[in-house]
Amino acid sequence: MTRTTLSNSFLAAAAAAALMIAPACGRNAGEKEVKDLSQKAAELETLNQKAGTASAEEQKKLAQAGVTNVAPNPDTLELTPEQKTALEARIKVEKNSSYQALLQEVLDKDKEIKGLNEKIGHLRAVLPRPEIAKADDTHYDMAMRYLRKRGVPEAKAKELVAKVLTMDQLAPGFHVYHFYSNGVYGSWVAQGKADLSPTQLQADRKARIEGERDQAEARSKELQAHIVDLTAQSEKLTADIESMRTEKERMTKDLQVLTAASQTQQALLNSVHYLVGRRKVLEDEGIIVVPVFSKDRAGSNWNDQAFTKTADLRSQDSITITAADAGLEKINKINVVPGSLVKDKHYTLAFNPDHTQATVKLLAKDRFRNEKVVFAVTD
Fold this sequence. Notes:
Residues 1-29 form the signal peptide. Helix content is 50%, strand content 17%. By secondary structure, the chain is α+β, with helices and mostly antiparallel strands.
């Protein structure tokens, strides 16, 4: 197994890793064996980490001493006999005491690594060969695959794996140990050839999930604020629309009133305003003046209030006068006031056979438009 250089933080995290064991009831011997193997796998991982750390420190001291042509064995991390001999010889001739001390520390680290390798070798000898995780492997699938190869029935294998604390995610190169004894299954995941440890992978995954969660929560808050803003805008728009609707209704009513007033005004402007009455009564009331030698004319009480009848000249061209309108039984004569209105030029008069009704035909409508006219009736 190739060991990678590990940081102090990783060593602390790896030391906190828990054993993943699923005991089968009543199988004490199997439990003991699986637990013992799991502990040895954990110990092996710790030794590998120590060896990796020692190798990193060794390389650092070589660089500090200005040695750039010494590379330990990549598999054992130990110096070759030739490299050790060369370093020992250099220590003897090195005049810089600091460099001498650094080179001696390199040799001491190499001795430490050799001692660790002896322990590592002993543990490897008693542990089963680990399975190396590939890109698409999952801990659960690897455990099930192992138990199937051991002849464990599918249902039983699922039951055993369900009791094991499997990792949610594996990195390619992880070493996955499987232990099975007397119906007891256990598993241990080591860093192996991967670039990061299982603990680091879990921490990274947790940080990523928490980061995504925080982003989702922030986005949710942002959307909630946006919804609140949109709701406020919607409420304002609704209020504005309601206000506009109310204003529209008011304006519609005002328009209707104005239209009615306009229509009324148009009717008045296009109508003739007339009064029918007995000639003598109209004279007595001061509405008309009856001269001796000229045509009847407007009197002092000739005003708008007296002319209560109208004929809309847009749709009418005649006015019907009855004797009853003047309080008479028959109509003998009708004087049209003002006298500037000329019979047979501006209008004509026609009586029914019994002279109870007369029809005034308006020949020149424009002459009568918006004018006040009195029809003074004589019996």
